[in-house]
Structures are given as C-alpha cells and as structure tokens.
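pasting input
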Amino acid sequence: MKADSRMNPLSTPDSLPRCSGLLRVLCVPLVFVAACTPAPTLAPTPSPQSSAPSPQPSLPFSPSERALIATLSPLPPPPPDPTNRVADDPAAARLGQFLFFDPRLSRDGKVSCASCHDPGKQFADGLPIPEKFSRSLRHTPALWNVAYNRWFFWDGRADTLWSQALGPLENPSEHAGDRVQFAALVETDPELRRAYAQVFGPPAPGSAKDSPDRVFANLGKAIAAYERRLVSRRAPFDVFAEGLADGDPAKLAALSPAAQRGLKLFIGPANCRSCHHGPNFTDGEFHDTGVSRLAPGAPQDAGRFAGVNLLIQSPFNSQGAFADDPAGRPNRPTAFLVNSVERKGQFKTPTLRNAAVTAPYMHRGQLATLHDVVRFYSRLELPPAPPPMPAPAGAPAGHSHGGGQEHILAPLHLSKDESDALVSFLESLTDTQVDPALLRPPPSPWTP
Amino acid sequence: MPIPRASLLALVLLTGCAPAPAPEPREPGPIAAPATASAPVPPRQTSLGRYYVAYTAAVPIQTNELVTLTVRVFRDAALRQPAAGVALWADAAMPAHHHGLSLTPRTTPIPGAPGAFRVEGLLFHMPGAWELYFDVRENGQEDRAKFDLAL
C-alpha cells in the first residue's frame, strides 16, 4: 500500500491499471477496501530449512500493558525466613523430606503429610475436602510456592511455613499426634536422632535434651526447609514475558493467541490483578468473594477472623520464643496484626501458578474447574448477601464498615471466547518441573 | 477532472473503514513515583488548617511489602516550626474498594525530633488508588492530612 495513495485518496496509485471512466468510480473505493484489512503483527518468518512450526504471531501489547506484565514476571527466588535458621540448610531439607513421608508422625501410624499433600497430585489431593479425615476440614492447598506466603492456611492461622506444619501434626482430625510422641520418636529412632543432631546440634545448655516443644518446632523447621524447595517460577507465561522484553520470537511463541488475549483480559477489564497481582499472582491477604454462599449447607466458617485469633494465641508464631531472630520480631507482619469483625468469612488469595493442575478451587473446593472459576467471577450469581454490619461507633472515615463480599467484585459478563481465553492464560502459568528426588522419601533422614 | 459522485459517495462510506489502532486496554491507573528520602512528596495541610504534614520513605513504596515512613508535622507552611507535643495516628484505605489496611501500623515518636514520627507496619496489599491519612491529635482535637498514593 503506497503512502501517497493514502495521503491523497483521490489519486490513483501508479501500480493500479489505468481505469476507464466507469471503473474509475470503483477504483478509488477499492483502494479503501484494501486499506480496511488490518495488518497483523507478524513474527519474522523462519528460515526455509527449519522444520519447526512457524512461531505464532504476537498480539500487540501497549506500553502500559507491558509495564503491568513486567510486574507479573519473573518470580524471584523465595525470600529468606529469618524465623527459621535452618530454612535453607540442605541437611534440614533432607530430614524434612524424610519426615514429610513418614507415617509414624501420627497417632495411628498411617498418616503422613504426603497422605493429603501427594507429590503425584501436585502436593494436594485433588478433592474438594479430605472427607476421609473430617468434613470440617477445608480444601487441601497445593504446596507449590508456599515459600512465598506471608500467612498460611486458608485462614492465616500460622505466620511461618514451619509453624504451619505443626498444625496438622496435632490436629485430632488430621495426624492426631502429639509433640511428646514425636519427641520420643526422635529420641528412640537412631536414624532420626542422628539426623536431628546433625541439623539442630546438641540440646540447649543446662538441659539433657530439647523439650518436646522445642523438638516439635524443630521438626516443623526441617519440614519447611524441604517445602521451600517446591518452587514453580518458569512457566510458558514467564518465557513469553521475557520475549516481550527482548523481542525473541521463539519466546513470544510460548503463549498461544488465545492465552495472549486472556492475558490482556487478566491485566485489563477483568481486573484479576486487584487480588492476583505480583509475580506470585496473589496479594497474600484475605477476601470474601461470596463463594461461601454457593453452598448454604456448608459448616459456618469465620475464616480469617478465627485465624487471627488462633495466630495471636499461638506460642509458635513469629512473635514467640521458638522463632529465630528475636531482634526482628517487632517488624514481622504479625506484630501489626489486630483482629476485626470485617475479617469474618474472608479466605486467603491463593497463587495462580499451577492453578491449572490443582483443581478443585476455593476454600472448600466449591468450584471444580477453571472454567467454573471464570464463570463464577463472570456471573457472580449468588444467593442474597446478609445485610452489611453497621459501622462501629467512632470509626474514623476510610475504614471498611462491616463484612460482606468484596466491593470491587462486579460481574464481568465475559463471552465464551473471553472465558476460554482467560482459562488459556491461566493454563500458561503451569510449571511443575522439580527435581524428581524431591518427590519421594530419601533413603535416610541424615545427610552422608 | 471532476470527482465522480459515486466515487465520492463510496469514499464517504468507506472512510469509516480506515484501519483503526488496536483498542487501548482500560487503564487501571498510573504507577506514580512514590516518595523517597531524595524525592519527598509535597507536604499537605490538614483539613482544619492547623498543621502541615510531610512524609518520606527510605525505600520506594511498593505493594505487598511492609513499609516504614518518616512523618513530620509542622505548624507553618514554610515547615520551620515543628509541632512539638502532638500525637499522630496513621491509616490508609482504598476508597473504591471500600476497605482499609489489613494490618494496623505502629506510630512512634522519634526521640529528639519534635513533631517527627516513625510509622511502621504499613502494608499496601493491593495495587490501585490508596489514600494515606495522618491524624494529628492535640488538646483533645484531631486534624487530618490526606495524601493520594497510586500503586
């Protein structure tokens, strides 16, 4: 298309045949018909010798879209955990991995962490709730990227990865064990005793052995050291984001056109980024999406409100004596945590990385597929909400005035194509590559 | 030669067909430069006019990270008279989202610096338009300075 014919539409381009009178009537409009066809942004064509399929064209991304995509990738390595001095100790991780698969850490000798956090099922169990244990439990979260969490459990009742492990170990509905039993096991099993001494050294001065509380906390710290290794940070989306930055067509081909359209929706009109932002796709905080109302018969669940109370009371929280780095206590998030009734019914925003392989979804697994999740946010068809609670007397302006569904949620009314595109994008966040040695118990808990 | 009328008609009909640029996505909001020690945000007067409040951050303010601010309260617009003896409360909210902070910040006076306070424990957990509030209290009365913060 020659520039001069656009600038002067009434002139006939030299490339067109000379038009006789009648045809001249049609020639000029035909120029415009040709101009109406949008020119796609094409990746450079591959060399003829290549037998690889030609790269998919990349949709155009505006500068502001690119800036937003740059906030979603790459995901840096996990942050340190000063409350756990063995968090990055390989010997601790090996002991923790051994314990993770050890059913002796339970009352009946049959339940290990892997019973619900099955490596063959993305360290989850693929069930809405683990009913074989109890109907009161919530959906088993997958363990990918737990090292990045600020709070743990759906209700945030633990504030460190190591203290999270302690909850199920003593929960009567789960492992149903107790710390005295675990401390005795460590003392009497020569393998465990050797590994424990290797990682945690001799007991504190003045004691013959560590107290059951101390052993309990240390077992959690070893398990956490293992779980910190379960990191997912190199999905096709991350490759695509790199391609946007460096223009590499092979990287740009990592996302299908549908997934790219889904990405545009994700960072644009669908507004998923409000809660699922940052390179781990979560704000790490708690919201009420209203999904609890999908199953009115489910047990009442105060969510975050109950979680904060439990966390504040726990001797194993980041403010307590078992958290390493006491000097850092005043600056941990828990030091600023105050409960409020607004937290009722709120549950933690999960990461979206590996969401495609960790169905079902939400705190009781209410939504079976990603399409169901997208449909939920698209339609927001829920039974009527309870009336909002009145503002507490004297509350300064700017505070939220009561519980209830997040105000920013509004039905998206997505078309089928848009919904499918969003699901395609979510599928592009899948990276389950991990050292296969992490998927089974090590031969021994101690490191040679 | 005179422009054929039919061509002109076709031209009028088809100018609407000119290739349009890809539609811009809805802008979720600017990513504003946050206040740092080297680039402080201009001070704001409190709503009842009694004080002028300025804040700085040693590290640029980001979402999802605990933030510490240094806040100074003055009695004059020229920022020469520190407001000794006042108390300060800090808070923030996202008005469009109808919610505040998920953590409660801690405000402590800075020893030896009248009218200066350290605010710790601010966690801006969501991107978007925040309002930052500094309530100055003295003699049983409260006066608020409000700042906009786009993250």
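fyi The first helix of chain A runs from residue 3 to 7.
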